[in-house]
Amino acid sequence: MKLIYSSAFVLVLMVVGLALTQAGVYTERYFRDEKHPGKCVIQSTVVSPGQSIKHPTMDCAEFTCDNSIGLATIETCDPVSALASPLEKLKDYDRANPPKCSWGNFKNTKATFPKCCEREYTCVF
């Protein structure tokens, strides 16, 4: 009997883990302020429904006011774990002994979204 409960628990954890992984790119929640009915408010910035702005506190994200009840979507860059290898950016290398490449920081956090998602990368030959 314990094995059945353990298996069910592991399955639930896997499903929750999958949901959390997918939730990293889009997040929805309410950003209401009684002083600005029909709008979304984030960090004292008033945003009209349908309007998108660069997120005021995140390095690279877009904040979109979805409707007049204050529901908004925050879109972030794909996590590094979801990106293709930076090795694909290299044209010429020894295929038998490829370099070890890894993603680094954002190139330009001042750029508009999604341009700000571009990352630096390093390769060790």
From TrEMBL:
<dbReference type="Pfam" id="PF15430">
    <property type="entry name" value="SVWC"/>
</dbReference>
<keyword id="KW-0732">Signal</keyword>
<feature type="signal peptide">
    <location>
        <begin position="1"/>
        <end position="23"/>
    </location>
</feature>
<protein>
    <recommendedName>
        <fullName>Single domain-containing protein</fullName>
    </recommendedName>
</protein>
<dbReference type="InterPro" id="IPR029277">
    <property type="entry name" value="SVWC_dom"/>
</dbReference>
<keyword id="KW-0964">Secreted</keyword>
<dbReference type="GO" id="GO:0005576">
    <property type="term" value="C:extracellular region"/>
</dbReference>
<feature type="domain" description="Single">
    <location>
        <begin position="40"/>
        <end position="123"/>
    </location>
</feature>
